[in-house]
UniProtKB/TrEMBL annotation:
Residues 62-446 form the AMP-dependent synthetase/ligase domain. The chain crosses the membrane at residues 113-135. One of its GO terms (cellular component) is intracellular organelle lumen. Residues 511-589 form the AMP-binding enzyme C-terminal domain. The keyword Membrane applies. Keywords: Membrane, Transmembrane, Transmembrane helix. Belongs to the ATP-dependent AMP-binding enzyme family. GO terms for molecular function: propionate-CoA ligase activity. Residues 4-58 form the Acetyl-coenzyme A synthetase N-terminal domain. NCBIfam families: PRK00174.1. The keyword Phosphoprotein does not apply. This is Propionyl-CoA synthetase. Pfam families: ACAS_N, AMP-binding, AMP-binding_C.
């Protein structure tokens, strides 16, 4: 039996033994005696009696082991023309001091700190500083607008907000201060303080008494040591799009997270201490949390924090320049980034300009990896291109080709096989397993392995309702797909109202709420339609209220601006069409899947439950035109 099969079968037959062994790679203040607490099933907790500190495991531990002079973090920022390296000792010292600064501002164990930061080293320092004192960070992606920030402020109720004065999008300065100010005005909850990282490109005005600069916060702050916390204490809350406008606060605990991420770095990504790992994502997303910050640092590897884009900073060779310059062993990004590079450099000429001899693997995740992109990257780079499938909720891969444990043949279109710890099943509408080759809902049998969400922030009920009720005993991933006869999984897309735009997860429900708020709109639907670069883009369809007489183009422009203003530029919402009616079932459910098929030009069957088949004509025409 191969190493993969052996590990997988043991992880399912004896999860406690499997994860007890994996836990030995973590430094515990109080090692786990119990491994899994199932007394409140379907809510499970890993390592219920253990204590540790995640920051200690990410920094202090490696300094103590002699890695103090090894680079821990390389900030490569083509948008500011700088490269800055922090050794493990430097990163520990910076973190210990900022932890002292947070303490002085009144942040205690269990308090939340909201981070709204560009891709700067302070983002990593602030996250680890929270972990150091047992505070709970909640990072909000910079591409979200004030309203989204306000919703998160009210849900997480942070004591302190840490923000950069601006972000830099290629060559455009995005001032964060007005967004933060508007969010604070809209939110009911008021943090006691805001710490602002002043960037010379665009310093922010400060509100006396509430705001202080990063430097002021640090001035005279005493470095503090790591505080032991319960393994089950929350490390962070990361909000992600659900099916409504209210995002879900995914909770990550300390113990399970540390164990799972360290295991995954070695076994999935094949990365060990001293290797350079680069996740070209953003700290605002789960990939950034897990594989820019925690995974590499828990491993004693060097991580790259890249403040730039795949193209335009300055060209489509940017990724290869960074990989060569920092001797990157593994690069992790989203397929859309590769598509963007390919569009500008179809022959991959720029790849040849750099010495990529250090690069062993390209990992891709965040959206479906189309076989064409896989093929292009594989051929041009000459290294394995490895798809891996997971979600904010799981925090680490559910399906992957385990490069460290046992590399297996790669199949285009499939993220390979279930990762040890995940009992993945494909089921039909009644929860019965379907045979290989048949599509269904992808579910994971409980308990989920360590590192996955134990619940949603402050809302066990919503956690159970959203994920556990559909198929009792199973976690609903929200993705559909199938297994093949070799046990390879094919993930074909979401079965709910979540879409993936350029690797960014967005809720069509949230966009519909914005459109429905316009006085001219009677009803609306937003669907994700296929896009060659971004995978999917949102497309809105609105029906006007009776008697309303507006110019459709003017209305469309207003609605586009409204979504940008409420949700943010990251929604990439640019298409709105005024239609006479939406296709619905007789019970009033909008037939989004049928609409999507027709708009994408497929010959969709007319659903038997449709109320009025003539409503389909407009969508068929749109498909024909596209
Ligand atoms: N702060 C402020 N604005 C941001 C932002 C941030 N952190 N990130 C994105 N935006 C803005 C962009 O400037 C853009 O604004 P615009 O509409 O005014 O042009 C909008 O949000 C959409 O951004 P993006 O999705 O990045 O699209 P793009 O067209 O600028 O670039 C790609 C296309 C493919 C190059 C880009 O999407 C990309 O690099 N994707 C990879 C995504 C990724 O790494 N995902 C993580 C999962 S691993
Ligand atoms: P996020 O929570 O932002 O990481 O988005 C998770 C969703 O992205 C999943 O539920 C999938 O729909 C999609 N996704 C992520 N990785 C992959 C992948 N490798 N293949 C197919 N879909 C993916």
């Amino acid at each position: 039996m191969g190493a993969y099969r052996e590990a997988y079968e043991r992880s399912i037959a004896d999860p406690e033994g499997f994860w007890r062994d994996a836990a030995a790679d973590i430094d515990w203040h109080r090692p786990p005696q119990r491994i899994l607490d199932d007394s409140a099933a379907p809510l499970y907790r890993w390592f219920p009696d253990a204590e540790l500190n995640t920051c200690h495991n990410a920094l202090d531990r490696h300094v103590a082991a002699g890695r103090g002079d090894q680079p821990a973090l390389i900030h490569d920022s083509p948008v500011t023309g700088t490269v800055t390296t922090y050794t493990y000792a430097e990163l520990r010292d910076a973190t210990a001091r900022f932890a002292g600064a947070l303490r002085r501002l009144g942040v205690q164990r269990g308090d939340r700190v909201l981070l709204y930061l560009a891709m700067v080293p302070e983002a990593v320092v602030a996250m680890l500083a929270c972990a150091r004192i047992g505070a709970v960070h909640s990072v909000v992606f910079g591409g979200f607008a004030a309203h989204e920030l306000a919703v998160r402020l009210d849900d997480a109720r942070p004591k302190v907000v840490v923000a950069t004065s601006c972000g830099i999008e290629v060559d455009r300065i995005v001032p964060y201060h007005p967004i933060l100010a508007a969010a604070l005005q809209e939110a009911e909850h008021a943090p006691a303080h805001c710490v602002i990282v002043q960037r010379p490109q665009h310093p922010a005005p400060l509100t006396p008494g509430r705001d202080l600069t990063w430097d002021e916060a640090l001035d005279g702050a005493e470095p503090v040591d790591c505080v032991p916390v319960a393994a089950t204490d929350p490390l962070y809350v990361l909000y992600t799009s659900g099916t409504t406008g209210r995002p879900k606060g995914v909770v990550r605990d300390n113990g399970g997270h540390a164990v799972a991420l360290r295991w995954s770095m070695k076994n999935v990504y094949g990365i060990g201490p001293g290797d350079v790992f680069w996740a070209a994502s953003d700290v605002g997303w789960v990939v950034g949390h897990s594989y820019i910050v925690y995974g590499p640092l828990l491993t004693g590897a060097t991580t790259v924090l890249y403040e730039g884009k795949p193209v335009g900073t300055p060209d489509a060779g940017a990724f290869w320049r960074v990989a060569a310059e920092h001797r990157v062993a593994a690069l992790f990004t989203a397929p859309t980034a590769i598509r963007a590079i390919r569009r500008q450099d179809p022959a991959g000429d720029l790849i040849g300009r750099y010495d990529l001899s250090s690069l062993r693997t390209l990992f891709l995740a965040g959206e479906r990896l189309d076989p064409d992109t896989w093929e292009w990257a594989s051929q041009r780079l000459g290294v394995p291109v490895v798809d891996n499938w997971w979600q904010t909720e799981t925090g680490w891969p559910v399906a992957a080709n385990l490069r460290g444990l046992e590399p297996m043949p790669l199949k285009p279109g499939s993220p390979s096989v279930p990762v040890p710890g995940y009992d993945v099943r494909v089921v039909d509408g009644r929860g019965a397993q379907v045979p290989a080759g048949t599509d269904g809902s992808i579910v994971i049998r409980l308990p989920l392995p360590p590192g996955c969400l134990p619940t949603l922030w402050g809302d066990d009920d919503r956690y159970v309702r959203s994920y556990l009720n559909a198929f009792p005993g199973c976690y609903l991933t929200g993705d559909g797909g199938r297994f093949d006869t070799d046990g390879y999984l094919y993930v074909m897309g979401r079965t709910d109202d979540v879409i993936n735009v350029a690797g960014h997860r967005l809720s069509t429900g949230a966009m519909e709420e914005v459109l429905a708020g316009h006085p001219a709109v009677a009803e609306c639907a937003v669907i994700g339609v296929a896009d060659q670069l971004k995978g999917q883009v949102p497309s809105g369809y609105v029906v006007l209220k009776a008697g309303v007489d507006v110019d459709p183009d003017t209305l469309a422009a207003e609605l586009v601006a409204l979504v940008r203003q409420r949700i943010g530029p990251v929604a990439a919402f640019r298409r709105v069409t005024v239609v006479p009616a939406l296709p619905k079932t007789r019970s009033g459910k909008i037939l989004r899947r049928t609409m999507r098929g027709l708009v994408e030009g497929r010959d969709e069957p007319v659903p038997a439950t449709i109320d009025d088949a003539s409503t389909l004509a407009v969508f068929r025409d749109l498909g024909d035109a596209g």
